[in-house]
Structure formats: structure tokens, C-alpha cells
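Job type: complex structure
Entries:
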Amino acid sequence: RKEVEQDPGPFNVPEGATVAFNCTYSNSASQSFFWYRQDCRKEPKLLMSVYSSGNEDGRFTAQLNRASQYISLLIRDSKLSDSATYLCVVNKGAEAGGTSYGKLTFGQGTILTVHP
Amino acid sequence: GAVVSQHPSWVICKSGTSVKIECRSLDFQATTMFWYRQFPKQSLMLMATSNEGSKATYEQGVEKDKFLINHASLTLSTLTVTSAHPEDSSFYICSAQRLAHHNEQFFGPGTRLTVL
């Protein structure tokens, strides 16, 4: 089983649509959760961190269910510029005896295409 | 804030040569930086964790003698691909970890390496 699993899509939606992405993670000790977006041939860019209480940033809402080890991202009123690959990312936190504050594990990404 | 630069952005070299890639955090200090590699249509794969002032930690399957990492200051880490071969052609991306706000990582723009 992959550490972070996402539906690869692709999702093709019209402008203005609402789209939801789901992600599950296998390590129950995971501590931090993020959604990144990656445009073609570019680096990933942080979209938002995901907090236990759920959080919203404009048209984007992220939710975390620790009991189910499930993370979601909801995009409302989709724009053409939202077309990208959305990466679910998990940080396991500090490693015992180590200096690193945790490595990120990436899901394979969900491709979103918003069309006119 | 939280800008990470990478240099060069692309490089083409002959098989057998060594290539050095620089990663800099421009407006924050990063005791930990990470090096990733991404092949076409695949997600990012962590190669190594670079800790300022100490040896890098490599992921399983990554040859430390082939991918030399130096993290000499709190704002600079370098990756040297030694004796590059065509199979090393890939998109190399670094990230720098900001020790606050869920230890978010910010990515450099990546370096596209093509080995002929």
C-alpha cells in the first residue's frame, strides 16, 4: 500500500464547478498535512496546510479526518487557472534522534483541467 | 517571503561529466533542505535530506557517492551529480524547510538536467 494515495483523475470540469479531491495516508503517526499544486514542468507550490479543525482559504477548503486517515480538498467556483496537478502531501514529523523535522511524502497527484 | 532559488534552471551535459546544482533560501534560514527528483508523469521522489553542518541522509537506493550533497550554510545546499549518465536525466528540485507554521517546505523552481 502506498503511503499517500490519491485518485489520479484526470478531473475535467467546467468553469464554475465545484470539485473535490480525496487522499488517504497509511502512517497514523503523520503530523502535518498539506496540499500543493504543480503546474506542468514547474515546481510544487504550497496551496494550503491542512489543520485538524479544517480550514478555508477563499475558494479552497481543506479537511482532515485523523481517525480515518483521510484528507480532502474542495475547490468552489473553479477557474481556468485552477488547472494543475494537486498533490496531497504528508509530513511524518520529527524523527527520533534526528535533526530533520520530517520528510514529506507525496501522493501521485490528481490532475485537474477546468474548461470554458 | 519564503523564496527558494535554484541554479541553474536547466543544463545539458555530456555523459561522464559532473553537474553542480545550487539551492538557496533567499529570505529565511533553513537548517534542513531536501533534494527530490521527478521523472516525467511521476511524482516527486525524495533523494536525500541535507542538514546544515552535518552529513546528508540518503534515501534507500540513492548512491551517496554519485549524488554529493553539501550544506555549508543556513541558506545554501548544493547537489553534485558526479559522472552523469543519460539515466540521470531528470527534473531535480530542492526544498527548504521553514521551522514554523507546520514546518512548511518551499520549493525551488527546479533544475532540468539532460545528459547526452
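Summary: DSSP finds no helices and eleven strands in chain A. The interface with chain B takes residues 32, 34, 41-46, 49, 87, 91, 98-109 of chain A (CB under 8 Å).
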